[in-house]
Amino acid sequence: MKVVLQHLTKRFPSRTKKGDDVIAVNDFNFEIPSGKLIGLLGPSGCGKSTTLNLICGLEAPTEGSILFGEDDVTRLPPENRGVGLVFQNYALYPHLTVLDNILFPLQNLKGADKLTKPQMMEKAMQAAKLVQIDELLERKPSELSGGQQQRVAIARALVKMPRVLLLDEPLSNLDARLRLQTREEIRRIQQETGITTIFVTHDQDEAMSISDMIVVMKAGVMQQIGQPQDVYDDPINLFVATFLGTPPINVFDGCVKGGMLYVGEDPVMAVGGVADQQVSVGIRPEGFNLDPQGTFRSNLVRVEVMGRDTSVVSTHPASRNPFVRSIIRADNQVDRTKKTVCFSLMPNKVFLFDAQTDARIPFTWEAQK
Amino acid sequence: MENKIDFDRIERRAAVRKRTFQTVDYVLLTLWALLVLFPFYWMVLTSIKSYGSYNAEYIPKFYTVAPTLQNYADAFTTVPLGRYFLNTIIYTLVTTGLMMIVIIPAAFAFARLDFPGRQLAFTLFLSLMMIPNELVIITNFVTITNLGLRNTYTGLILPSVTSVFYIYLLKENFEQIPDELYRAAQVDGTTDLKYLLRVMLPISKPTLVTIAILKIIECWNSYVWPRLITDDQNYFLVSNGIQEIRENGFGRENIPAMMAAVVVISVPLIVLFLIFHKKVMAGVSRGGTKG
Amino acid sequence: MKKRSMKGWLYLLPAILFLGCFMVYPLIDVLIYSFEEGYNSASQTYYGIGLYNYRYVLHDPYFLQALRNTFILVIITVPLSTGIALLISLGLHAIKPLRNLYQTIYFLPYVTNTLAVGLVFMILFKKTAYSDGLVNLLLQWFGGSSVDFIDGPYWAKMFVLCFYTIWVVMPFKVLILTSALASVNPEYYSAAKMDATSKSRVFFKITLPMISPMIFYLVITGFIGAFKAYSDAVALFGTDLNAAGMNTIVGYVYDMLYGNSGGYPSFASAAALILFAIVLTITCVNLLISKKHVHY
């Protein structure tokens, strides 16, 4: 079931007489293909949870429409849309057993959809097996671990075979070890059922690792939508570039003059097709190569050994962050006695952004020999 | 287009249903509110009807054409209402004051101090909460009688001073003050007593006020104990004073004056409540949920 | 460190003194009293130890009447008041504007002197030589005949007592239930909405179980409080409850201590202990039932 958002806007009237209205979701337009796992990604307060609430119907949009497939569901109440929602805090009914929690939505079906008891049990068992909690059906939620509770919440959302499955920050309440495991689980469940799934997170690691597509949001405005690797390799603006990637991209002040990119005062590489202007320069940590003849020079602070890679921490006068991090292969030897370290840059890991608007400025380069 | 129309109708019907439900809700809630307020209204109304006009009404009237304050004057002159008032004020203030002096150290001991047998002592205190007042009142009656303290303030006040319930409430409140404050004070060389007075009490002021108000309400309305141990009119409180007026004073004949007395008795607490209503309701609900 | 450890007892001392004197000692004393037979308070002597006091009390017609009155009061007022309180709380919960105003109004009876307000109820319900009273007026408007609720037939008196008792206990119950309703996590309601749960199902399957501990607490304390009824009856009918036939168990206890029959602390103790035993039993029964029905 594909999900289409058209001009979706949600405005909250301001609480004070003077303040402006808060626009939580600002003119969203995108189409989510059927059967895919989509990550809504953004910092706290960017409107991603509100978007989720709009899609599931717990909140009504100020403007715009939402379509499931060909049906306009914008004015349908949530119970009639066929969505399943997994709450951030799971919202499992504490006084019911796991089995009763999963059966609960089925018991609400009326009229033509009404199921017999054995049918309900069968569906519940299917859902339980899918999320692998069929051993724990007689327990109460308070007797389960966080990860188990979440699986019950997922089962409860899936048991009525929704058209769209929504998850609100599914991994934020779990400890680090469980997070890795659970995000694989979510991926597996999504692929087995083939249900269009949208989840919301502020952790770009999570979003990148399991999503078919990611949507990056900031302050209610959609920044970029695309496959994770594409968004990473081809950010549309400075915000998207800095939001994705661990360690984060290194940002510098620079300018382009006469076809040459200057980072601070130093010319570092030739860039084609760019007019002279002030720019913000983003260089991915993996975009540095140790090169004694390299054009990029920075002041060495320390070298951190990470086993497979080595992280070279340095400072540079034009850097906007306190430190510049470069990730290089561990078999490179860094001369720690020297004060400066020299790198050459990989052009595909260098991004230019307009100094005022932060929009990406594409450029051409000659292939390295 | 077909869909859109359906939505409008559904939404309108839902809105209508919601509005009818809300109207019924408001009607019922208002009904109960009237039921609650009506006795007070009647109280005040009757108190300003003159004696003659009240008794002339075969069918009680909801209004009066000639309101008078004569009843209030009667209430204070024909029976010692003023005296009852005074007694009640003294009783309430002294008992509440004494109670604060007793429960603050006790709650502090349970919440903050460490001493051998503390857990046991607390459990014993808690179990005392289960003892109904009706049992202990018997012996207290005999005790006070034997000590010759009937018809005295002392006899009225002493048994009413303390209640485990308030110790428990205050202790819970003290426990919420973080340990770090205590340890920091210790490092500064503060004695326990100073810590209690300078740090804990100011922080707990809201709860202390609530507890005091609850105790004031309890004292003002207390009936059984004063009734048991006082038979001298000079020592009656308002509650058993009212009973006295009803049975031996003008109660039988002069209803409006009775009502004036009732109004006078009820007003202080109602005023107190209206000022502090948030605190009072919060305190009662907290005490209730802890139970 | 050792020095500090005893200081705690010092802080407890005032409380221990008061409680010991006026709570612990009386408790033991009452027990002893109840078993001392033929106690004469004038000479402070007694015949022997035994169950005479209990036997006397249990055969005393005044006690039996008080027992009957109290039981009727309990059975009628506890379920009714809890049920009405629940309805009112649900009604309050469903509205936003004016909620605080209503809550404050509803709480008024809690802060008023029950003796004082009881008088108002008395004059509203009583039929005198001058007038039938307001309530009777209403009754006649609806086509009924007037009844003296204060001095008249037993059922009328019981009715007023129950009515007044419910009026008095409502504030506390409504307050507790409204805060219980407010404490239910709204996410449960959102989740139920997503699952297309009908209003009645939401109430019975989610709301009610979540507030069941509080409802249960009100039932227990309601029973205990109703068994101890006394001041409300006095407020309506006057101090001589036996004459009105509306005595309660507690009233009987106080009568034995002080009333016209003079000082019989032994009988009073026996009656009080019987009351305590009844309350204890009922509370235990309630607790057992709760294990099955209440969800914590």
Describe this entry's structure for a reader.
The complex is a heterotrimer of chains A (369), B (291) and C (296). Chain A has 369 residues and is α+β, with helices and mostly antiparallel strands. Chain A has helices at residues 48-56, 98-107, 117-130, 146-158, 176-193, 204-210, 228-233, 238-243; strands at 3-12, 22-32, 37-41, 63-68, 71-72, 83-86, 164-168, 196-201, 213-218, 221-226, 250-257, 260-263, 266-270, 277-283, 288-290, 296-305, 309-315, 324-329, 340-345, 350-354, 360-361. Chain A folds into two domains: 3-242, P-loop containing nucleotide triphosphate hydrolases (Rossmann fold, 3-Layer(aba) Sandwich); 248-361, no CATH class. Chain A is 22% helix and 34% strand. A six-stranded mixed β-sheet of chain A has the order 6-7-8-3-9-10, with helices on both faces. In chain A, strands 13-12-11-14-20-21 form a six-stranded antiparallel β-sheet. In chain A, strands 15-19-16-17-18 form a five-stranded antiparallel β-sheet, with no helix packed on it. In chain A, a hairpin with a 2-residue loop joins strand 9 and strand 10 (221-226). Chain B is an all-alpha fold and 291 residues long. Chain B folds into two domains: 2-56; 79-249, MetI-like fold (Orthogonal Bundle). Chain B has helices spanning 2-47, 51-56, 70-78, 81-111, 118-128, 133-146, 153-157, 164-175, 179-187, 192-203, 205-220, 224-229, 238-247, 255-290. The termini of chain B are far apart. With 296 residues, chain C is mostly helical. Chain C folds into two domains: 1-50, no CATH class; 60-118 and 147-293, MetI-like (MetI-like fold, Orthogonal Bundle). Chain C has a two-stranded antiparallel ribbon. In chain C, helix 3 (61-93) packs parallel to helix 7, helix 3 crosses helix 12 (249-258) and helix 7 (154-182) packs across helix 9. Chains B and C meet through helix 1, helix 4, helix 5, helix 6 and helix 12 of B and helix 1, helix 3, helix 4, helix 5 and helix 7 of C.
